[in-house]
C-alpha cells in the first residue's frame, strides 16, 4: 500500500517558482517606497524628535542631528545608496557585487530598529507619545515605509516539501512553520558576489587604509558612547549594518583585497590601533583599550590550544595568573617576600617562563586524555591554582602570595627612563598612564600575532590542524600526537604569561579572585573560550574582535544589573545558532557548518 503525498495547497506553494515579495506590492512600487521611506528618514534626522532635553543626546535641535539621530542617519544613508543601486544607476554597481535587494532589506531593518527603539525609549522615559515632536513621528513613519518596501521586493521562494495526508495536525503545523522559516531565510539571502577586479597596488592599498580608518572610527564611537540608549542603538545599527554590507558582497570584496596584501593589512591594523589614544581627550577609554588588549592577547594564545590544536582548555586563565604573580614577585612590590626589583625585560621572561613550566607540568600527565576528560582536568587545574594562591598566606601554607589580599603596590614600569605611570606630551597630545600601557600591550599583541602566524603556517602548525581534524588519522600518518599537543599547550601558556606580566603592573594588585573560571567581569576562562568561539577559531582577527566585544559589551550593559549575564548569554546562544562558525570564520570551518557554501579553489595552510 502506498501513501499519496501532496504539496501544500497554499498560494506561496503554487507560486514557488515565481519571484514575489513577502508583502503584496508591485516591484516598482516597492522599490519606490523603500527609496522614498529612506529619504524621508534622512530628512527626519534634521528635525527635533522631542521637546525636552531630559532625554539624553539632545534631540530637540533642528538642522543638526545628535545622539541616536546620527545612527539613524547612517542607516538611512546606507539604505538610500542600496535603493539607488537597485535601479542600476551608473557608478553605484560596485556597492552591490552580490545584488542590492538583501542588502537593502538589512539596511532598512537597521534603520527601522534604531528609529523605533529611540521613539519607544523617548515615550517610556518621558511618559508617553505626547513627548514626541513631528520629527519623531516622521522617522517612525519613514523607516516603517522603507522596511515595508524592502520586504515587498521579489525573491526566490524555496520549494515546499510535500505533505503526507496522514500527518497529524501537529505535524502539519510543524511542516508549515518550517516552510515559513525557510521562506524568511530566503528573504535575506543574497547571491554569490562577483569576483573583485584586480586593481593597481596603490589603489588596493588605499582601499585597505580606508577600511582600517572606518574600523577605527566605528570602534572609537562604540567605546565612547556616553549613555545606555546610545550604546544599544550603536549595537543595533552596527550589527544590521555589517549584515547589510556582507549581503551586498562588500565584505567579501574587502577580504579578497586584504588577502592580497596580508602584511600591509596587519601592519596597518596595528597603526590604526596605535592612533586610538590620540582620538581621546582623557585616559578614561584608554583604560578600556588596554584591558581589551590584555584580554585579546590571552584569547589569541588560547586560540593556539583550542583553535589550532583542538584541545578544550577550561582553566586557561590560570596561566595568565601565573605570569602575573611571577612578575609581581620580582617587580619590587613591598608585599613580595623576595624583596627584589628586576627590570621589565627580566620580569617578562620570568612570567612567560613560569607559565610555560606550569603548562608543561600540567600538560605532560593530562594531554593523553581527550575531549571532555581533558576539559575536566584543565578546569580542575584552574581552580587548584586559585585556591593555592589563596592559601599561600603564611598561615595555611608558605608566605608567598599574601593570600586573598594578593600582592599589592606593584610599581609602575620604567623602561629606559620612560615612566609608564606619568603623563607624557607627544605632538601636542597628552598621553596618560593607561595610554602608555596601551602602547606596550600593542607591542606584546604584535609579538603574539607574529608567533601565531609563524607557528600556524609551520610544520608544527599543520600537525596541530591534523590533530584537531582527526587525531587517530594523524597518529597513523606518523605525527607524535602527545609531543605536538604538549608544544601547543606550552606555547599557549607562555603567551598568556606574557600578557600577565603587563596586567600585574596595570592593575597595581594581583589577587586570586581575578582568575576565576566564570564571572561577570573578564578575563576568566569562560569568557576567554567564548571570545575564541565567538570571533572564529583558528583565525587571528577572530579572537581579537571577539575579545573586544566580550569586554566592551558587558562593560556597557551594566545598567541591566542582575539581568546582564542573562542578556549576554541569550545573545551568545542566538549567535551560535545562526553563525556557529564565528564572526570571522576559518574558511575550512565555515564549510563544515555550511556544506552548501561554495568551496574556494585553494585553501591555505591555515584554511583561511
TrEMBL record:
<feature type="region of interest" description="Disordered">
    <location>
        <begin position="1"/>
        <end position="21"/>
    </location>
</feature>
<feature type="transmembrane region" description="Helical">
    <location>
        <begin position="434"/>
        <end position="452"/>
    </location>
</feature>
<feature type="transmembrane region" description="Helical">
    <location>
        <begin position="560"/>
        <end position="578"/>
    </location>
</feature>
<feature type="transmembrane region" description="Helical">
    <location>
        <begin position="202"/>
        <end position="224"/>
    </location>
</feature>
<feature type="transmembrane region" description="Helical">
    <location>
        <begin position="344"/>
        <end position="364"/>
    </location>
</feature>
<feature type="transmembrane region" description="Helical">
    <location>
        <begin position="486"/>
        <end position="506"/>
    </location>
</feature>
<protein>
    <submittedName>
        <fullName>Branched-chain amino acid ABC transporter permease</fullName>
    </submittedName>
</protein>
<dbReference type="Pfam" id="PF02653">
    <property type="entry name" value="BPD_transp_2"/>
</dbReference>
<keyword id="KW-0472">Membrane</keyword>
<feature type="transmembrane region" description="Helical">
    <location>
        <begin position="230"/>
        <end position="250"/>
    </location>
</feature>
<dbReference type="GO" id="GO:0015658">
    <property type="term" value="F:branched-chain amino acid transmembrane transporter activity"/>
</dbReference>
<feature type="transmembrane region" description="Helical">
    <location>
        <begin position="285"/>
        <end position="307"/>
    </location>
</feature>
<keyword id="KW-1133">Transmembrane helix</keyword>
<keyword id="KW-0812">Transmembrane</keyword>
<feature type="transmembrane region" description="Helical">
    <location>
        <begin position="314"/>
        <end position="332"/>
    </location>
</feature>
<dbReference type="InterPro" id="IPR043428">
    <property type="entry name" value="LivM-like"/>
</dbReference>
<keyword id="KW-1003">Cell membrane</keyword>
<dbReference type="GO" id="GO:0005886">
    <property type="term" value="C:plasma membrane"/>
</dbReference>
<feature type="transmembrane region" description="Helical">
    <location>
        <begin position="526"/>
        <end position="553"/>
    </location>
</feature>
<feature type="transmembrane region" description="Helical">
    <location>
        <begin position="102"/>
        <end position="124"/>
    </location>
</feature>
<feature type="transmembrane region" description="Helical">
    <location>
        <begin position="262"/>
        <end position="279"/>
    </location>
</feature>
<dbReference type="InterPro" id="IPR001851">
    <property type="entry name" value="ABC_transp_permease"/>
</dbReference>
<feature type="transmembrane region" description="Helical">
    <location>
        <begin position="32"/>
        <end position="51"/>
    </location>
</feature>
<feature type="transmembrane region" description="Helical">
    <location>
        <begin position="71"/>
        <end position="90"/>
    </location>
</feature>
Amino acid at each position: 500500500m502506498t501513501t499519496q503525498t501532496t504539496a501544500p495547497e497554499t498560494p506561496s506553494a503554487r507560486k514557488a517558482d515565481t519571484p514575489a515579495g513577502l508583502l503584496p506590492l508591485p516591484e516598482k512600487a516597492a522599490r519606490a517606497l523603500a527609496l522614498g521611506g529612506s529619504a524621508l528618514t534622512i530628512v527626519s534626522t534634521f528635525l527635533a524628535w522631542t521637546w525636552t532635553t531630559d532625554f539624553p543626546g539632545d534631540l530637540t535641535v533642528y538642522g543638526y542631528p545628535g545622539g541616536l539621530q546620527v545612527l539613524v542617519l547612517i542607516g538611512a544613508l546606507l539604505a538610500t545608496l542600496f535603493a539607488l543601486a537597485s535601479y542600476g544607476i551608473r557608478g553605484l554597481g560596485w556597492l552591490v557585487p552580490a545584488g542590492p535587494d538583501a542588502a537593502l532589506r538589512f539596511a532598512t531593518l537597521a534603520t527601522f530598529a534604531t528609529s523605533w527603539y529611540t521613539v519607544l525609549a523617548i515615550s517610556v522615559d518621558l511618559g508617553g507619545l505626547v513627548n514626541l515632536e513631528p520629527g519623531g513621528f516622521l522617522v517612525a513613519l519613514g523607516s516603517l515605509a522603507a522596511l515595508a518596501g524592502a520586504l515587498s521586493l521579489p525573491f526566490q521562494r524555496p520549494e515546499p516539501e510535500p505533505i503526507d495526508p496522514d500527518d497529524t495536525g501537529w505535524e502539519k503545523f510543524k511542516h508549515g512553520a518550517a516552510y515559513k522559516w525557510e521562506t524568511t531565510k530566503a528573504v535575506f539571502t543574497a547571491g554569490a558576489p562577483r569576483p573583485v577586479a584586480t586593481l593597481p597596488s596603490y589603489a588596493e592599498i588605499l582601499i585597505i587604509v580606508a577600511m582600517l580608518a572606518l574600523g577605527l572610527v566605528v570602534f572609537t564611537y562604540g567605546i565612547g558612547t556616553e549613555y545606555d540608549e546610545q550604546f544599544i542603538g550603536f549595537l543595533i545599527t552596527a550589527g544590521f549594518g555589517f549584515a547589510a554590507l556582507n549581503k551586498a558582497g562588500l565584505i567579501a570584496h574587502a577580504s579578497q583585497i586584504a588577502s592580497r596584501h596580508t602584511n600591509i593589512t596587519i601592519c596597518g591594523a596595528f597603526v590604526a590601533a596605535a592612533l586610538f589614544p590620540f582620538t581621546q581627550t582623557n585616559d578614561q577609554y584608554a583604560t578600556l583599550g588596554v584591558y581589551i588588549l590584555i584580554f585579546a592577547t590571552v584569547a589569541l594564545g588560547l586560540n593556539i590550544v583550542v583553535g589550532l590544536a583542538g584541545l578544550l582548555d577550561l582553566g586557561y586563565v590560570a596561566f595568565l595568573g601565573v605570569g602575573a604573580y611571577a612578575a609581581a614577585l620580582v617587580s619590587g612590590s613591598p608585599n613580595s617576600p623576595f624583596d627584589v626589583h628586576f627590570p621589565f625585560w627580566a620580569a617578562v621572561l620570568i612570567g612567560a617562563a613560569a607559565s610555560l613550566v606550569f603548562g608543561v607540568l600540567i600538560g605532560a600527565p593530562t594531554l593523553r586524555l581527550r575531549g571532555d576528560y581533558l576539559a575536566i582536568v584543565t578546569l580542575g587545574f584552574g581552580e587548584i591554582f586559585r585556591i593555592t594562591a589563596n592559601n599561600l598566606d603564611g598561615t595555611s601554607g608558605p608566605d608567598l602570595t599574601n593570600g586573598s589580599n594578593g600582592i599589592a603596590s606593584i610599581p609602575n614600569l620604567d623602561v629606559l627612563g620612560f615612566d609608564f605611570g606619568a603623563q607624557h606630551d607627544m605632538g601636542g597630545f597628552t598621553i596618560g598612564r593607561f595610554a602608555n600601557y596601551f602602547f606596550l600591550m600593542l607591542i606584546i599583541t604584535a609579538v603574539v600575532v607574529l608567533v601565531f602566524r609563524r607557528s600556524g603556517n609551520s610544520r608544527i602548525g599543520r600537525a596541530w590542524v591534523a590533530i584537531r581534524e582527526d587525531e587517530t588519522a594523524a597518529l597513523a600518518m606518523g605525527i607524535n600526537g602527545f609531543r605536538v599537543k604538549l608544544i601547543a599547550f606550552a606555547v599557549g601558556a607562555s603567551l598568556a604569561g606574557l600578557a600577565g606580566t603587563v596586567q600585574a603592573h596595570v592593575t597595581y594588585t594581583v589577587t586570586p579572585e581575578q582568575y576565576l573560571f566564570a564571572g561577570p567581569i573578564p578575563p576568566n576562562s569562560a569568557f576567554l573560550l567564548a571570545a575564541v568561539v565567538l570571533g572564529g577559531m583558528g583565525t587571528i582577527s577572530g579572537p581579537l574582535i571577539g575579545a573586544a566585544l566580550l569586554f566592551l559589551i558587558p562593560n556597557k550593559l551594566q545598567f541591566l544589573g542582575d539581568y546582564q549575564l542573562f542578556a549576554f548569554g541569550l545573545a551568545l546562544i542566538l549567535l551560535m545558532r545562526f553563525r556557529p562558525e564565528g564572526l570571522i570564520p576559518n574558511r575550512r570551518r565555515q564549510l563544515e557548518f555550511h556544506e552548501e557554501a561554495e568551496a574556494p579553489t585553494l585553501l591555505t595552510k591555515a584554511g583561511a
